[in-house]
Amino acid sequence: MAKKITPGMETYLETIKKIEEEKKVVRVKGIARKLRVKMPTVTEALRNLCEEGLIRHEKYGHIELTPEGNKLAEEIDSRHQILFSFLREILGVDSQLADEDACRIEHVISRATVRRLVKFVHFVKDFPGGKRLLENFRNHLRDEKGICEEKKENDHVQ
User: Fold this and answer.
1) How far apart are CA 46 and CA 42, in angstroms?
2) pLDDT tens column, 82-103
3) pLDDT band at residue 56, thresholds of 50, 70 and 90?
4) Residues of the chain with pLDDT > 90: what percent?
5) CB within 8 A of 88, min separation 6: which ones?
6) Which residues contact 127 (CB under 8 A, 6 or more apart)?
7) How many C-beta atoms surround the C-beta of residue 89 within 10 A?
8) pLDDT at 48
């Protein structure tokens, strides 16, 4: 296993994995475009990932994940999907915000917490009263939103 993988390195692994799935061939330019960074920044990150044994990359050649890098990229993507599902389906967060927040959280959340989150999502979805619980929660959110909007209107009147 690699020594210390930073959130930035995880982002590069996840990006390489996504590009592989989309196009099959991963190049520095494609990573730079997807992450909206300059090519020298990508080159430096790739050097670090090579040193950690997570990718293979020859200068000016294509980039590929090692088995260890692929495994780590899959773990990162799995955390992202779990967090996105929780934020979107359980908490009702807007899709774009849920995706952005999942991307931030996926790098710092522990495996133990992810496991608990998965169990909680399954519990709520599979529990006989789970759908009713989610419906009540969403109604509570709507009611709360209505109360906040009423308060704003009253604040403007005064």
Assistant:
1) 6
2) 999 999 988 889 999 999 999 9
3) very high
4) 53
5) 95, 98
6) 133
7) 14
8) 94
Say how far apart CA 38 and CA 87 lie, in whole Å: 32
Residue 73: what pLDDT? 94
3-state secondary structure of 46: helix
CA distances 26 to 8, 41, 67, 70, Å, are: 18, 16, 16, 13
Contact by Cβ (8 Å): 10, 46: no
* C-alpha span between 25 and 143 (Å, rounded): 49
d(CA 154, CA 100): 33
Cα–Cα distance, 82 to 117 (Å, whole number):
8
Residue 47 corresponds to which tokens in the numbers above?
């050097």
Taking a C-beta distance cutoff of 8 angstroms, is the pair 72, 5 a contact? yes
